[in-house]
Structure formats: C-alpha cells, structure tokens
Amino acid sequence: MRQLPWLEPGDALPDPASAWDERDPVPGLLAAGGSLDVDTLMQAYSRCVFPWFSDDQPILWWSPDPRMVLRVNDFRLHRSLRKTLSRFAATPGCELRIDHDFGTVIQACSQSARAGQSGTWIVPDMVKAYTQLHRAGHAHSVETWIDGELAGGLYCVALGRAVFGESMFTRRPDASKIALAGLVALCRRAGIAMIDCQQNTVHLASLGAREMPRARFVAHVAQARKQEGPQWQFDPVYWSELLSERPPLST
Hints:
The protein is an alpha+beta fold. 31% of the residues lie in helices and 23% in strands. The protein has eight helices and eleven strands. The strands form two sheets. The chain has a seven-stranded mixed sheet with strand order 6-7-8-9-10-5-11, with helices on both faces. A four-stranded mixed sheet has the order 1-2-4-3, covered by helices on one side. Strand 7 and strand 8 form a beta hairpin. It starts with 5 loop residues before the first strand and ends in an 8-residue tail after the last helix.
C-alpha cells in the first residue's frame, strides 16, 4: 500500500495524478494535513483538488478520477422544474440573489441532513475557511428568496471561468434546484462550459451531470481559470437561457 503524503502548513499539494486509485484503500484521496488558508485553497482548486473530512479527522485532500461534472448545455430541465422556474420568475417576491447572505447559506448547508450520512463534512473549520475564501472574492452563494425569506441555495468556488459546486440546501420544495438552475443560467450567459460536481450521485446524474476523466478535467480547469470570470450578479433576463428552450419530451 502506498503511503499517503502528510502536509505541513504551507506545503505544496502533490500532483493530482498521484492520488490513490482502485489499488488503494480509498480511491481519490491525495494527501492529509496542511491548512485551509485562502492561498492553500486557491492552490488546491487550481489543481482540481478539494478538502473533504469529518470533525474527527485531519484535513483530507481529494482528487477523484473520474470527476463528476455538469456541462451547462446538458442541464436537464425536466417539465416539472420548468413550470416551477416559470412561476418563480413571474411571481413578485421571488428572487434569485448572489452573495447576499453567504454566511447563512454555508451554515444551512452544514446543517442539512444528507442521505446515508450521520454527520456533515462542512465542519466549523470548513465554514471559517470558505467564509474567508468568500471575502477574498473566490467563493459565492446562489440564493433562492421567497417573500423576503431565504428558501434555499448553494455555494461554489470560482477561479476565472472554472466553477466548482460545493453544497446546497433547501427549506422549501425545489428551492435548491431553483438556485442550481440560476447558476446554470448565469454560467451559460457568461460562457462558462461546466460546473464541477466532484463526485457521482444519482441526483446529479438525473440533472445531466456526467463523469469525465481527471486528466481532461485538469486540462479544462487549467485553461478556464485563466479566462475572465463573470460578474457575480443575477439579472432576471438570465432565466431566458433556460426558459426559451423547447420543453423536454419527458418529465
């Protein structure tokens, strides 16, 4: 069994290609230790690496192969969600906001129950780290507001035109899906090709996400992060990126 690299704060992350694979106990695991400061997180995401660990573990760094990604042109707008979005866009008091209340969004994500999980990976150190990343301009929240209340949302990391989805939560039916649809619409308008979803889930696959070899994903991010990113603001006209499409044949 290969030894897992241990990092001291300030150490460079290993090459993602050296992550554990199917021959090792936990495929995708790259290293342990280090720190969650803004510079280290920026280095990690630029190399397609992300932290993911529980409260009783050290910082663990991951780079799975293959990588789950949502190409924004492949987003599946099922008929029921199309109706929901149309109603949302046309209803006074319904609004999609960007970065209005990042702190509440990440706290809500950390408290959301997940199928098959007894706890959360968004531990207090992660909340603190991504809040700092948000203040540095590299982490963003996409928020669904209904009648002045935060109904759901998600947060992501962005380096240029490389966007990495992190987590979402909902307090009302479909509120997190509305936020994801809003992010897709923003990305389409800004010329952003894909959103990283990190790992494969049935829910993500149902929305059009697919696996991509890590090497191809790394090459994509290397180019996308050098390109000028979008203005992280949402204009209601962006809904046309989704609602002007021909409705799907199936629900």
